[in-house]
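Fill in residues.
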């Protein structure tokens, strides 16, 4: 981490980037880091291609732009790119080829990625990227602000589904959360902010997606999908995928849950969840995506039927040889 700290201290202007279709951990990391740097008098550009489809992040969409500053208006000696919550610039969905002469700082908690960046702080044992931002802020003599603690805890909660994905390897997490609470965050308030306030229509939509769920390999893999036409009379930003995963992962015997969402005609955004030691992060990487062993995502060029056939072929040998409980 030391080389990242020195790079952040040395540079004066930053393009703070996150992955396309951001989640709370991605945006929380960007917002917390930019707040910390701005309090030191540094200039920050919060950049995200979006789309901001998740209801819990909608309030911060106006803080971001998908317009990159012209590289000829940036000082190469004092400007750096910061890539958060992913390790590949391709994941931003933006054309960053004109910025190849600027140093790149990568801060991420995913084991996947191309290993790029001039300066890297990557820790796959951290449950969220925001907790790595907490490490950076706490390594500074500048005291963490309440707003930064807010962003950090928000990212942690959304990426761990409110502590559900905490494992034995996540040593020291509760000490970090304790320090955030001393800065004023309230776990009770955050649970209400993230999970309350769903509309009746969203509950009916959830019922539709549960109703069409398919059971494969004797119930060990559950597969369902969302199409654009499902949102004709329903605001897509109110989808509640987290509750869907919880419902399906609670089914007796279910080891893997897969949700394929039609992001545009001929393209799917796919989410994988595992309730065992089957590493769905490896599956996502085979499609150019990534994530955690128990929660990951990728894209797929094709229809739901095409993806179903392919993914079932891919899981067939895994399910045949799986020896877990």
């Amino acid at each position: 981490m030391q080389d990242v700290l020195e790079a952040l201290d040395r540079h004066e202007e930053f393009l703070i980037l996150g992955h396309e279709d951001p989640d709370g951990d991605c945006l929380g990391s960007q917002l917390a880091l930019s707040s910390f740097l701005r309090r030191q008098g540094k200039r920050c550009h919060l950049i995200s291609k979006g789309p901001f489809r998740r209801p819990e992040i909608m309030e911060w969409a106006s803080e971001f732009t998908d317009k990159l500053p012209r590289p000829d208006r940036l000082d190469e000696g004092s400007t750096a790119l910061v890539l958060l919550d992913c390790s590949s610039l391709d994941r931003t969905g933006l054309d960053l080829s004109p910025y190849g002469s600027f140093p790149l700082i990568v801060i991420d908690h995913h084991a996947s990625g191309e290993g790029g960046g001039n300066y890297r702080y990557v820790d796959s044992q951290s449950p969220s990227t925001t907790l790595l931002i907490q490490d950076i802020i706490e390594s500074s003599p500048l005291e963490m602000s309440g707003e930064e603690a807010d962003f950090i805890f928000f990212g942690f909660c959304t990426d761990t589904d409110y502590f559900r994905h905490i494992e034995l390897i996540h040593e020291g997490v509760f000490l970090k959360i304790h320090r955030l609470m001393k800065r004023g965050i309230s776990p009770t308030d955050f649970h209400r902010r993230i999970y309350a306030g769903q509309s009746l229509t969203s509950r009916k939509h959830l019922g539709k997606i549960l109703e069409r769920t398919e059971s494969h390999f004797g119930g060990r893999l559950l597969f369902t999908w969302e199409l654009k036409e499902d949102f004709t009379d329903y605001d897509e930003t109110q989808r509640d995928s987290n509750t869907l995963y919880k419902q399906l992962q609670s089914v007796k015997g279910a080891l893997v849950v897969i949700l394929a969402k039609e992001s545009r005609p001929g393209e799917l955004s796919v989410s994988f969840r595992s309730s065992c030691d089957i590493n769905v992060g490896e599956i996502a990487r085979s499609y150019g995506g990534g994530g955690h062993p128990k929660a990951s995502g990728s894209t797929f060029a094709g229809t739901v039927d095409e993806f179903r056939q392919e993914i079932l072929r891919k899981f067939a040998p895994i399910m045949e040889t799986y020896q877990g409980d």
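The mean pLDDT is 91.
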